[in-house]
Structure formats: C-alpha cells, structure tokens
Amino acid sequence: MIPRYSRKIMTDIWEAENRFKIWLEIETLACEKMAEMGTIPASVPKSLREKGNFDIERIDKIEKEVKHDVIAFLTSVAEYVGEDARFVHQGMTSSDVLDTALSVQLKQASDILIKDLEKLLEALKKRIIEHKNTLCIGRSHGIHAEPTTFGLKLASHYAAFDRAKERLIAAKEEIATCAISGAVGTYATINPSVQDYVAEKLGLKSEPVSTQIIPRDRHAMFFSVLGVIASSIENLATEIRHLQRTEVREAQEFFSKNQKGSSAMPHKKNPILTENLTGLARLVRSMSIPAMENVTLWHERDISHSSVERNIGPDATVTLDFALARLTNVIENLIIYPENMQYNLERMGGLVFSQKVLLALTQAGISREDAYRIVQKNAMEVWESNGDKQLIDLIKADEIVTNKLSNEQLDEIFDLSQYTKHVDTVLNRVLKSN
Amino acid sequence: MIPRYSRKIMTDIWEAENRFKIWLEIETLACEKMAEMGTIPASVPKSLREKGNFDIERIDKIEKEVKHDVIAFLTSVAEYVGEDARFVHQGMTSSDVLDTALSVQLKQASDILIKDLEKLLEALKKRIIEHKNTLCIGRSHGIHAEPTTFGLKLASHYAAFDRAKERLIAAKEEIATCAISGAVGTYATINPSVQDYVAEKLGLKSEPVSTQIIPRDRHAMFFSVLGVIASSIENLATEIRHLQRTEVREAQEFFSKNQKGSSAMPHKKNPILTENLTGLARLVRSMSIPAMENVTLWHERDISHSSVERNIGPDATVTLDFALARLTNVIENLIIYPENMQYNLERMGGLVFSQKVLLALTQAGISREDAYRIVQKNAMEVWESNGDKQLIDLIKADEIVTNKLSNEQLDEIFDLSQYTKHVDTVLNRVLKSN
Amino acid sequence: MIPRYSRKIMTDIWEAENRFKIWLEIETLACEKMAEMGTIPASVPKSLREKGNFDIERIDKIEKEVKHDVIAFLTSVAEYVGEDARFVHQGMTSSDVLDTALSVQLKQASDILIKDLEKLLEALKKRIIEHKNTLCIGRSHGIHAEPTTFGLKLASHYAAFDRAKERLIAAKEEIATCAISGAVGTYATINPSVQDYVAEKLGLKSEPVSTQIIPRDRHAMFFSVLGVIASSIENLATEIRHLQRTEVREAQEFFSKNQKGSSAMPHKKNPILTENLTGLARLVRSMSIPAMENVTLWHERDISHSSVERNIGPDATVTLDFALARLTNVIENLIIYPENMQYNLERMGGLVFSQKVLLALTQAGISREDAYRIVQKNAMEVWESNGDKQLIDLIKADEIVTNKLSNEQLDEIFDLSQYTKHVDTVLNRVLKSN
Amino acid sequence: MIPRYSRKIMTDIWEAENRFKIWLEIETLACEKMAEMGTIPASVPKSLREKGNFDIERIDKIEKEVKHDVIAFLTSVAEYVGEDARFVHQGMTSSDVLDTALSVQLKQASDILIKDLEKLLEALKKRIIEHKNTLCIGRSHGIHAEPTTFGLKLASHYAAFDRAKERLIAAKEEIATCAISGAVGTYATINPSVQDYVAEKLGLKSEPVSTQIIPRDRHAMFFSVLGVIASSIENLATEIRHLQRTEVREAQEFFSKNQKGSSAMPHKKNPILTENLTGLARLVRSMSIPAMENVTLWHERDISHSSVERNIGPDATVTLDFALARLTNVIENLIIYPENMQYNLERMGGLVFSQKVLLALTQAGISREDAYRIVQKNAMEVWESNGDKQLIDLIKADEIVTNKLSNEQLDEIFDLSQYTKHVDTVLNRVLKSN
Fold first, then answer.
1. A283 at the D interface (CB within 8 A)?
2. Is B344 on the interface with D (CB under 8 A)?
3. Cβ atoms of residues D117 and C389 within 8 Å
4. Which of B2, B270, B308 lies closest to C283 in CB terms?
C-alpha cells in the first residue's frame, strides 16, 4: 500500500484515529452491559460516554514503555475518564478489543468494496447496453474464432463481478463477528451476554466459540475472496490490454490531454492503467497465502498473525479499493472502435463461418469426419491468403459442397445476424439481478 | 497426489472411466433436447442411450494422432453408435463437454468432502462431550494462561470445521454450473434451452453467460476454499502435535501394536500422522495460487488453465479427502491423558489465577496499575520458583492484598470451577447446528 | 505430475527402484567405512556388495505392518544378506538414508534439467542466428514502439535461460549434500568420517551440521529456482502466443498433419503448446511456497516436510523437464513469417521513427518540450489514419521541422538499418558463453 | 511495510530523495560518456555536475499533469540546469533510468541485509561458543530423542544464515546490472558504450541484452532469495518459541523492566518477538509469488511489474532488515536456562539412551529385530511411568540383556559424554568461514 495506489476513503479506516475510536466504543459498550448486570458501577459507562477520549501521541509514548498497545490506550483513556477508568476493560483481554475492532474495520472496508463493485457493475452495464449488438470477433487462443458482440464480451465480466459482490457479501458476514470471551475464551471473567450485547450494538454476530481470539480461518477466507476478486480484475484488465494492441485497436484507455505515453516515443498511447491493474491484482492475490498461514496459531492463540494483519489488512483492502475504482474509471471512459471491430471481423476472409459450413454439411448427410476435412482444406487456403481470399467463394466453388448445399443455403450460412440472436437472452440472465 | 495419500473413493472420480461416462451423458442429454426441438433426428438420443459407449484405449490411440481429446472420444463413441453419431456434439464445442464434466466431477468431489467433514464433526463432537469438563491449562503464546477444558479446546476446532462445511457447500454451488453455449459462447449454433435442459438433468445451474468456457473465477474460489479448509486441518494437527510433546503429554496419536517410531530409537512414539497432515495442508493451500492465476484467460478463452486443472483438480480434492479422513481417524483414536492435563494445570503454582486476583483487587478499590504491579511481583516469584511456591500462599502473605481481600475471598478466587461455568453455553452455541 | 506431462527419463528417478538402489548404495558405502574403521566386521560391506538386494513388493508388505519405510527396506535387504545384515544401518537413522538419497535424486534430476536447458539454449541459438537481422516491430505495452529483430527478441530469452542454467547449477550444488550424523545429528553413534566417505563416493558435499536431517532451506532454495525457471518459460511461451495471434501472425507453433485445432471450427490453428506451458509454469511456481514453509521444522526435526516432498519432488522436476523439452520442441519447429513481420512493421505509417525525429529536432536546437509536441501532433495524425498517412510525409510538410532539418536528413532518419547496427554486439555478449 | 516494523537505514533507500539522486547520477554519467563520444556538447555533463538538482514537490506537481514520472523529473532538472538540459536523457528511455536505479537501490538494500546477516552470525557465534557443551535434549517430532548441546542447536541455524549470506551475495550479483539500451533495447539511439560506462561507474554489471527493461527473472530470483531467508528466520524464531513454552522453559526472550505481557494476566512473559518474526516471515515469503509472476511481460515490456515492485521493493527489504535486526537482538539477549535443560534431559528416566542399548545388543550378537523388541519393551515401561522408572534399572534387571552385557558396559552406555565428543568437529566445520 503506497499513497500512489490508495484512496483516502479506505486508508481512513486504517488510521489510528478510527481504530482507537472503535476500541473506545467497544470498551464503552462492554461497560454498558456490565453496569446493567451490576458487575461494575453504573457511573462507568456514563463517564465513558461523557468524558471518554484518547490522545494518539500519548498512546504512542506509553506504548514505547510498556510495549503493549491496549494497555497504552487504556492508560490514555483513564487520563480523560478519571476514577471510573479502573472498571474499564474489566475481565477482558486485549484480543477482545483488538479482534472485534478488526472485525469492524474489515466490515467497514467491505462496505466500501461492495459499493466499489456496484459502481463497476453500473459502469459495465452502461457499456454493455450501449454495445450489446456491436459485432466483433470472438477469439479463442488468441485466434479468430467466431463473431460475438462487444456487449456480450463485457457481460461475462459483469457476471464475474456480480459473483464477486456475492462473495464479498458472504466474506463480510464471515468476518463480522464479535468475541469478548476473556482469557483463553472461557468467559470466566466476563459474562457471555456482554459479548452478545456488544455484537448487537456493533451490527456483528456473536462468535459462538473463541479462544481469546476470533478464529483466523475467517480472515483467511476473507483475504482469499479479495484475491479471487483481484484475479477477476486482472482478467478484464488483460482483455482491455489485448484490445488496445496496435494490431487490434478495438478499444483504448482514455488518454488525457497532457498525458505523455513515452519520454522517448511521442507516438505512443499505452494501456498503462490496465497494466497497472494487472500488477495490483498480483499483489492482492499473494496476500491470501500469509492469511491462510495465519490460521494455525499455537494452542489458544499466539500473536504471529498480528504482524501479517497489520500489513495485509490495510494493503489488501486499500489496493483492491483503488483497483476497483481505477477499473470503473477505465470502463467509463474506454474508447471503443466499432469500425475497427468490423475490420478485424472481416479481415480473415469469412473464416469465422467455417463451423456453420461444417454443420450444414453434416446436416446434409456428409459424415462429420469428411465434412471437417472439406472445410478445413478450404479454410486453410483462406488462412494462407491472409484473408485475401474469401471462404464463401472457395466453398461455392467446391463441388463436394455444392452437391449438398445450394447457393441460397450458403448465403444464409455466411450471415452475421445469427451471432446476435441470443444476445438479449443472455443479457436478461446476466443483468436481471440489478 | 500419490497413492500413499489417496483414497479410492476420490481417485475414482478422476479416472478416465468416470470422466468419459460424464462426457457421454452430457452428449446424450444434449441430443435429447436437440431431438425434442427437432434440430436432430429423434433416433440420435435413442441410439446413444442404447448403444452409446466408448473404449478408453481406443481413445488414447486416436488422441495421439489428432491431438484433441474430445474429437478422439467422439470418434470412439461413433464406432459404437454408427450412423447417428454424426449428429452428436452438433453445434457444440469441446469446452461445452469438458467444462460441464469438470463441474460434475467437482460436485462429486464436493459431496465426498462434505461427508468427510460431517464425519470429522461427528468424531469431534463425541470427544467434546466426553471431555467437556476435563480441565486443562489454556495457553497463549505457548505460555500457561488460564484453565479451560479439553472439550472447549476441541469445540473451537469443531466450529472451524462447521464453517468449513458451510464454505464447501457454497463452493460446490459456485462450481456446479453447466455451460453449453457453443463457440465463444454466443449460442449461435446451439439453443440456450439445450444448456438449461442438460443443467437441470445433471443437477447443475445453467451458466448465465459463458465465453465458450465456464468462467474460472468459480474454480479459483473453489480451490481457495479447499486451501482454507486445509489450513484449519493444519491448525488442529498442530494442536495435537503440541499436546503430544514429551514435556506436555496431554494427548497422543494412537500407535498401533507393531508400529515402529524410529529405526534407531526404540523408545519413540511420534505424532507422525498430524505432522503428515501439516505437510498435506501446505500442498492443498499452495494450489489456490495457480487456480487464481487461471482466472485470466485471453479473450474468450485460452487453454492454459487446463494443465493446471488436470493436476490440481485431482491433487487438491484427493489430498484433502485423505487428510480429512486421516484427521477423523486421529481424533477418534486420540489417547487423552486427563491426569497429565491436571498435572500441567497445577505445575505453575496457581499462577493461572493471577488475573482473578487482579480483578478482585481492582474491585476492592485499588487502581488497575497498582493491582497489576502487586500481582505481577508475586506472580514472578512463583514463576521463578518453577511452581514450587504457590501463588495463593504469597498472596495471602502480602499485606497490601490482605488489607483489601479476606482469606475466604481469596479461596474463592483460587477455585477452578469458575472456568467451566460457561462451557455448556458455548457448547450449545457450537453444537446446535447438528 | 500426470503421465500426459511427464517424460520417462525423469519419472524413473522417482521410481521405487531407483530410490531403493540409492538407499542400498548409501548403506553399503557406510558399511565400507565402518568396516574400515573396525566398527563392524569386514564381511558386512562384502556381503552387501555380493548379495545386497531388495524386493519392492516385500517392502510394501512389511511397511504396511511396521509403518516405517526404512525399517521395511532393511528387513527386505536382510532377507538377502543374511547374518551380516544386523550390522547394516548401525548407528544411523532413517533420515541419514532418506535425506542423502533425496540429495542424490535431486542431483540426478538437476543433471537432466541442466541438459534440458542446454538443448533449449542450442535450439534458441540456431533460431537467433537464423533471424538475427530479420526486422520486426518491437512492442512495449502491446503498442508498436520501434523496430528490432527477431533474433534480438530471442536473444533476451536465450540470456534468461542461460541465467537459468547458472542458477540451476548453483541450486544443484546447494542440494547435493550428504548427512549421516545419527539421531539429532550429534554423530554420537556414527563417526563423522563415515559421512565424509559416503559423500565423496556419491559426489556430494559433506553437510557441515545437520540435525538428523539435511536443513530444508536448501530444498526451499532449490524449488524456488525451479519456480523462477518456470516463470522464464512462461515468458517465452507468452511471447509466442502473442506472435501467433490472428492479427499479428509473425510466428506459429508447428501444427502436425492430422492435428485438429478445434472440434467445432475447422479453420483453427491454436498455440496450444505454449498455452500448455503457461499452465505448467503456474504449477511449478506454486510449489516454491510449500517448499519454503517446509524450512520451519520443530526442534531437531519433524516429518511434516516429507509429504510435501514426496509430491513436489517428482511434480516440480518432472513438470519442469517436460516443459523444457516441450519448449525446445516448439522453438525448433516454430514457423516464422518474416513477411508478416515486415507488414506489421510498416502498417503504422512510419510512426516507429518518431523518436528519431524528436532527437534530430532537439539536436537542431529545438527544446525537448517543443520537439515532443511537434512530433506528437504529427504522430497522432498518422495514428488516427490507421497508418494510411505516412509520418515522413507529414513531417516533410511541417514547416517548423523543415526549418531545422533538410530532406536528406529526414530520409536518413526514416531508415531501418540503424536498428540493426548493434545486433552483433549484443549477440556477441549473449552467446559468448557457449 | 509499516513504521512499526521498519528501520530508517532501509526506508531511506526507498525515499524519493535517494531515488531521484540516483536518477540524476545516471543521467549525468550517461551525459559524461555521450559528451566524451561527441554525441552531445561537453558542457552538458559539466552543467549537470555543477547545477544538477531537483525539487521533489515540483516533480510531484508536474507528474500530476503529464502522468509520467521520468518526464516530470527531467522537467524539474531542466529548471536547474537551463539550456543544456535538452541534451539530457537523449536517446534514452525512462526504463534506462528506472531500472538501473532500481538495481542500485536493491544493491544498497542487499549491502544492508548482508551486514544484518553478519551481525546475526556474530551474535549466534557468541552464544554457540558460550553453550557449545551445554547439554540439552534433542527432540524429533517434539518427542525427546537423544541428548545434544545448545551450541549444536544454534550451530545449525548459524549454518543456515551463513548459506543465507552466500545466497544474498549471489542475489545481489544477479540484480546489480545496468541497462541503457534505448527503446526496445536496440541501442539504436544510444551507443552500448554508454551503458558500459555507467555500469562501471555505478559498480554494476553491463546487461548483455535488455528489451528496454532489465529482465525480471533477475528480480524474481532476488525476492525468492529473500523469501528463503525469511523462512530461515521463521525456523529459528519457532525454535525459541518452543524453548520458551511453560513446560519446556529452556530459553526466554529478554523481557524489559516495564514491559507488560498481558493486559489481563500479570504473570505472563510471552515470546512476542519471535512470534512477530514468524508473521514477518510469512509476509516476505509471500512476495516471491508476485515477483515470479512479474517475469512474464508482454513483448519487449509492459509496465505491470511496476506497481508490484513499488510495493515489494520496499516491503520485502524493509521487513527483512527489521526481522534480521530483531532476531539478532533476540539472540544477543536470549536468557538461557541450562538447569532447565538438564532437568528436561533427565525427566524421562534415561530413555534417551535407548538407541545405545540397542546398538550394544546388536554388537553383542542379538539380531536387530530382537534387540529392538527388547529395548522397546523396557523403554515403554519407563515412558508410561512418566520417567519415574529409570531405563538403566530396568535394563540391568532384564536377563536377556545381562546375558550379553556386563554392568560396566551398561554404565558406559548410560553416559552423557558421548553426545558431546564431536561438537568441536562440527563447530570447526560450521564456524570456519568466519
């Protein structure tokens, strides 16, 4: 995570200010319930609500001495709250605060990421509808296959990000739990109802069992989901990079007026945003590995997960937020060249209709094997001519074919409209959910 | 995946026999719908149902020549089916068959894994109930913290595998889709209703949009879930390895009569099963990375994902199945030593009650800071005595304490029963779902 | 590792036959030294050399009972050797045999991989020399940049595989060590000179310190090197996939006579070998992660590394060997289209000379900023014409330019020969080592 | 990388100040050579040496507009240098500056890391010599195996970090290269001798072939080496965590006077530094994956590697530097408890001598199988007594044994001195290099 690839809305979540605010709220809520149960004086939560505060610099200073961040925080709070402070955090461990706070932060982060995905879906939807019938060549293995439409191309990415959203909602549920179970999670020093109360107030689930800490398989799942979403970003980014290739030129990232593509070559407009997204995806993806390694902690807990999470917590969410926003921007401003799509579609002399001819021949009674050979032979001649020859001409001149298929039938085969006939069906299925 | 770490029930799914059977079923179902729609003669699905078959050796031989597995398969089927064969696979691509078949295989694998998890949960549940009140020391950072029970320890793992099951059910849903959309996914040569029909018959969802292939973010999610489950296995395996340490000896893997622990040292009984599980977890986890890298394919598809999936498809599911079965076996036969747990619990001179004293002092009006110092001083004396001194004795001899707390109060503090009072609450929450 | 992506030369290394042969040799060599030192009777190594043998089925059967592979092996050997067998393995642990044998296997594997790399280098060298002056467009960001030659393109891959070879030689050195240090590595039951002797005889280094096992950072390094080499394979494979794109068509994988590119589309020739290599690279790369996780073993050793190595040992080496051989084959048979390269080079109207114009203007006294603007303006006009306009024409019509540069100077700028003038220098630097 | 886990000495390398300084030096050196060759006026390098400077804020501002960092930098430099600036960077691309500068930064980082390793080695050496004969139990599988010494334990880690140093030196060599080859690496606009000159002046090798950028397999190798070193850190950290376990207590991290182990449990001293190192190791290790994914760039280059390197460049080196320094500190201040080592060594009733008895019986003519059974039977009795019974007593009471071995022979067997007899040999081999 570096400023260059960060947005304030997400970095704010990981600032000390937000973290300590959540800590204070957790402590206050816990005190509310404990006071209600008569475990601590009623004045404690009241003092916390009225005077509860903290001083970040002071906390840093204390932590340097005691080497324990929660104790440092509590000491700072005590300086604001006074006498009542000694009842704060009673029967709780640091993890009760730290882990529940991390849940809140990851929930906040998830909410932003879900909104990011919604904006991306919206941007995609607009371009899908705009280009739902814009014909272009579909490619498998980088080789021209059959026609499709640009809207259909985008629709597959739309569906992927729709799944991404569902996964993220599930991942948020996974992570949005509250544990206040005391040392090694026995509730020996704090009643389970405190946890239930704090959970409810914070919009979290109450963790059924914890071992002082919230179990890390939840976090592993969360960061893995981010990794999968990042991979979907890479997929769309790569598509755009391909379309912007000089030889293809079917789409192009927006290039601002004063932007310079190359310090040396003034003619260049490079797909640097999508290349950048490719790299960011690699980063987010890799963070799933330490998140999974974090699941195995010793006995009831050790703290090896902490240094990992202090890094990947912000890094993964900030990077993914930035990437989603950047991708949305790329999609919104993507320059699309339907005329180049048309040009590419036609440049291979109608080879794209080869399957149609094959099917018609089979239907007309030629064995699949023979039909395949006939079409392949003609197709290869077109291919080697670099699209100078037209498949329809060769086919119409092939007696084996014309013995079986009339000119009218062949003209019908070499008709692009058949490739768009199910576009609406697909789009209805894909876009229905929004 | 090697025989040593494989079970037949799972490897069978990945045998050629099962794969080709599924392919044949997909082709047959597709023909049923196409015949119903009048696209192909009604005799075709009938011939397939009656005569449809394949010869694995023959397929291998043909593939060597044509270098295309689906064409080789169709050729072999044609040799059984005869004339009608030329209508088989009509308008379809290889991916329609391959990807839908992979969905079926992963669904079959998921069903086994879900059953594996259920057996593991059952085994854990039995040991949890058996030992729900078996007191033992809880440890954070490997250091004695406070008492817990062995049942509670296992309950946290139970909850993790319960989550694993939920995740796997969701992952199965993710992966259980059917796509028969033809070249580059436009349905130009095959009506979408064929896909819908085949999906329904195979118990799959109908993929809303595909680009000839089923989108690989689904598979990335699937293998990531396996990786997270593997990490939970490692977590429990590590717990057992710790408990079997010579200095701890609270539990021990079952050691069969003729088993030899060491070729050199006849006295050894090693936790080799759980160490093995630790290694297997590393393997399964690592496979999530290539699965995520597979998401980015070029344009409508390339085939780079295939070599990855031919490996990790079997490897991840077979290894995880083996690991879950082995872990279940370890849990069922785990030898538990309650007397050693008791011994360890007491060996540090009652240090484990230090928090309780701290809380009582705070309640009695001493500031948290002062109370901490008082308890820490006495605790350190016990610690340095290696548990020869008893914390209760030192505390009862400390005037600052006794000014505030009576002997009766202190006896109440040093009472183990408080650590089990919420065990039933927790177990009710954890085990409720089964 | 599956048969489809395996070569016998490498899988043989990992067969039981080879493994047990190495074990027997290690035991025999150890006995030779022990007999020489008088620790065991002189008849023992003699018996081993004369009668030493093993029966794989028998070993499997015994292992099922004793659950210990080395004990099972020794029992089988004893059945051949008779009385003297009781002195075999004396003072040694299983790890002394297992780890040293793994070193031998990895050394054998390395030797094959090094040869693979040499063959690949040879194949590349041939194509480099063949095409050292075959002009083609160089692309950055997928966008036409400036001319280069196809030989130069390949030279950068040659250099990468030359580095790969150096790294593999170093990795082999890393891994080629022998440890026979007895339980927990103290040599208490076996003199260090036995290790030194066996090491020397097997062509290994004598491990300076081992903790019963050879330290796993060595293996982590080894598998990481394989991962890096796999990444270089992916790099070259991706280049070829790009060059084979329909819109580019500068090169093409060899396509055998009866090969079928697509079951549905007879016109297709797909770069399936290099796509396959891309997937194989993902697999090998991912194995570096569990190899690194294996470094951390408990105290003097645990056996968690074993299940990982039983898999990735064969998987990584077999897959990499197959991939290198396949890539060599791809390079040897690669069809190269210099005329398409020429076509692509020229299709953008001479835009590729833009930097040259920029430099000449700067040299002629125009500020870099102004020169950049002038060239960019003209370049964009060419770009938007899709290469219909020629940059040289626009430039010659631009008064600001012609005030500074003569027609002769401009003609010199738009000359392709300048891009090849340092080809020999580079090739001399790259190919010198062979 | 977060301040909590960073040291200024390493973060400084990654500051804008250092980066731009290196850029300026590269540009200046390139100008020196170009001036010498007569390509640009002699005044240019002179102006750069005299007036060359940059303004970081100004650069940031310009970059916002032109979206190109090197152009922004050159513009700022031009504002200091004046007229001559238009000859700066002539014929060069941004990559020539960026990549060579990254080489310099990674070389600077390597030098620090090598020093870190030397300090760690020194710290280890001191403790090795101090405790070379401090007997302690060696453990395999967490189970008591045979005696070793604490010095020997540390020696294996010493050897690992000695290898780490060798690997890092090699990795530094890998990465320390200079490429100034112009657009797509043809040297068309800049003579190769410029690169050679700059390389020599900066202490780098001259890259034999580059494609505008330095090939990324070099960086993949570099970051993989960091990952392997991190894994060795985790290994030693884990050893210390094990030794500090309450039940083991053979060593303990230094705990400062005012440090608090737990906010809730005043008795706790936790191995938080080594747990922290375990987490940091996970982070560094994971960065090898995106580094390897970076190897595959499109054609002559794309910029997807850049966002990865902007993160992992600093993250991996800063984290590893911090971890090495922290580990050195842990080792220097590690509290070692020889008396607890002795206690643990003896607590299992002399089981640790079981192999010795086995060997003596074999030597005395009993078959290995029988001897194993005899010793195992007695060993298990000791084991089940929890070390209350002594193996020597049981053995001396076993007639099958005493028929073969005299009391004197048995006393010799149960003698700890044999486990230290080769300590000096090993230490001489391990420490020789320093």
1. yes
2. yes
3. no
4. B308
Cβ-defined contact of D184 to C145 (cutoff 8 Å): yes
pLDDT tens, position by position, B12-50: 999 999 999 999 999 999 999 999 999 999 999 999 999
Domains plus CATH for chain C? 13-89 (1.10.275.10), 91-256+267-342 (1.20.200.10), 349-420 (1.10.40.30)
Confidence of residue A256 (pLDDT cuts 50, 70, 90): confident
The tally of CA atoms less than 13 A away on the side-chain side of residue B388 is: 4
Which listed residue (B68, B262, B367, B422) is catalytic? B262
Chains that touch D (3 or more CB pairs under 8 A): A, B, C
Distance (Å, whole) CA C69 – CA C399: 85
Distance from CA of B418 to the nearest CA of C (A): 35
Give the closest residue to C12 by CA, choosing from C111, C94, C79.
Answer: C111
List pLDDT tens digits, range A333-378.
Answer: 999 999 999 999 999 899 889 888 988 998 888 887 888 889 988 9
A contacts of C356 (beta carbons < 8 Å): none
Query: Hey, is the C-beta of C204 within 8 angstroms of any chain A C-beta?
Result: no
Q: Strands B335-336, B251-252: parallel, antiparallel or unpaired by DSSP?
A: antiparallel
Q: How confident is the model at residue C434 (pLDDT cuts 50, 70, 90)?
A: very low
β-bridge partners, B39: none
C228 touches chain A (CB under 8 A): no
CA-based nearest residue to D38, from D85, D97, D90:
D90
Tell me the DSSP string of C375-429. HHHHHHHHHHTTTSS-HHHHHHT-HHHHTT--HHHHHHHT-GGGGGTTHHHHHHH
What is the reported pTM? Answer: 0.97
Give per-residue pLDDT as tens, D1-18.
799 999 999 999 999 999
The residues pairing with D136 across neighbouring beta strands, listed in sequence order, are D148
Residue D282: closest CA among chain A residues belongs to which residue?
A290
A240 CB neighbour count, 10 Å cutoff: 22
Chain C CB within 8 Å of residue D119 CB: no
Backbone angles phi, psi at D396, to 5 degrees: -65, -20
Residue A303 and residue D256: Cβ atoms within 8 Å?
no
Best of D257, D267, D340 to disrupt the B interface (most B CBs within 10 Å) is D267
Q: Active site includes B262? A: yes
- Residue with structure tokens 């008895």? D357
Which residues does residue C178 pair with via DSSP β-bridges, in sequence order?
C206
The rounded distance, in Å, linking the Cα atoms of B199 and B206 is 5
Which residue in this structure is represented by tokens 């790259």? C430
Closest C-alpha among B243, B91, D182, B156 to residue A355:
B91
Distances (CA, A) of C292 to C225, D130, D234, D309: 12, 31, 10, 21
Give partners of A (≥3 CB pairs < 8 A). Answer: B, C, D
Residues 6+ positions from C131 with CB-CB distance below 8 Å:
C149, C150, C151, C154, C336, C338
Rounded Cα gap, residues A187 and A209, in angstroms? 10
Asked if D251 and D334 touch (Cβ cutoff 8 Å), the reply is: yes
**3-state DSSP percent of chain D in helix, strand and coil, to 5:** 70, 5, 25
Using the beta-carbon criterion (under 8 Å), do C267 and A293 form an inter-chain contact? no
CA distance C242 to C282: 18
ipTM field? 0.95
Contact state of D276 with A306 under an 8 Å Cβ cutoff: yes
- Give the list of residues 6+ apart from residue D3 with CB closer than 8 angstroms, or none: none
C226-237 per-position pLDDT tens digit: 999 999 999 999
- pLDDT score for C16: 97
pLDDT score recorded for residue B365? 85
